[in-house]
Design goal:
Elements (H helix, E strand, L loop, with lengths): L5 E7 L4 H23 L3 H18 L2 E8 L2 E8 L3 E8 L4 E6 L3 H9 L3 E5 L9 E7 L2 E7 L3 H11 L6
Parallel strand pairs: 6-8
Antiparallel strand pairs: 1-2, 2-3, 3-4, 5-7, 7-8
Length: 166
Amino acid sequence: MLEDQYTEQLVKGKPGSGEIGKVVIAALVITAGLVTTMITGWGLFLLAGGITLLVFAVRGMKFEYEYIIVNGDIDLTKIIAMTKRKPLRSISSEVITAMDSADSPKAKNDMEVGEYTVYDYTDGTESSPVYAIYTTDKGKKEMHLLQLSEKSLRLMKQVLKKRSLI
């Protein structure tokens, strides 16, 4: 019986425009609450709602991605404020068509042309190499950007063999 090849890693996420937008909306609600409080007492409810929204928005900006790779199948999960787990997607090794460095001319061209829908699961810094996992499933072409550790990269190269362009 063959042993499963397994690796797991965490990568800090970068807040996107959605998370930043929630903080801006919360600030606007707080401001409206302050102005309304000066006019009427009902503004206190708006102010309390804005503060609550701000707390949840700021907590939501602190998250990490968890990559679990088993025999080339990738499970991606978003861990928000170290308390809430949100499964993002599972990528079967069967739908992976290629793996390449995200800095390669091919990957850069594919991102610019827009033929692939790109999903970024990295920390947004250049601290470690980023790899592009190409998938095609039911006619949908997608590119998943991941910051794979050395162990994860070795496992993926071993599983993908000829599909790995690295």
